[in-house]
Amino acid sequence: MHIGRGLEFNQGSILAEGLAEAAVHNDWYYTAYIDVCASAAERALEPTRSLIACFEESLLDEKIITWSSYDYCRQYPTPSEEFPGGRWDGVVGLVKDNLARIAGEWLVRPEYDLDRARAELINTLTITQRAPYEPWHDFFLIHGSNAYLWHSVFLAEPSITKEQNAHLIETTGHMLLFLWAGMGFPKLNMDYMMAHQPKVANGGWDKIFKRACFNEDDGHVIKLIRALKNGETVSKPYDHLPEFRMEQDMFLLAANAAMDSASEKPMTYVQHFDLIRFAGFEEAWEKVPERQTVQAQ
After folding, report:
1. Is the backbone of residue 196 left (phi > 0), alpha (psi -120 to 50) or beta?
2. Which of 200, 194, 204 is nearest to 296 (CA)?
């Protein structure tokens, strides 16, 4: 986030802070997965598979979709009596080879259309909803959505080469599948999302951004709204392609759904009242109200 914002808004101190954080970031729990992905990508046949195809194949792997539980995911990363291996026994320890074999089939080469690859990354896995509940979002998954838009910034930065951008986009796609596996692989439910009835009539983007600016959280919601608008923009040239499941009319509806589920209750310290965690598990949705048919105001 810091690197992206620093570049986009020409804020050198924020960029320096982001680079410093990246240099010392503790990435031990996913480095092994990235290494296996890189090896798989070297052996992968071209043309590349779509990212959504990799996602759907992952759902067919019994080991990937059953590796964890809601209670396991909610533990702290450190070892405990119940979970002696900590989260190292999670995605990396248990299913990294299965997941990396699939993820490594999504390739991004410097000679590819990097704008298209960036758009596919942003378009894929943007929304997860679960019937019959209100359209709440996963706290961890929206961090992915919020970060993907920075690839637009990186592509516009002349000091970043095509080779570097290709590597960044490809690795982000691999990590996207890793993130979703960690959340219990929540399924995409486009039909359910498309059936959402906005609470505010004629909720165009201007009205959506105004609502988001007055939302009393710590910025997560408005970052998601911005990511959705960016997704709509960059996906437009490729809207006719089957791998772009989020079509143009879906982004605004998804933004309306996000604002409709946003809590009017101010946060208490770091406690959100409109986000869930580990959306792939039924237990995560137990306190979420069921979706009601409403009359737009």
Report:
1. beta
2. 200
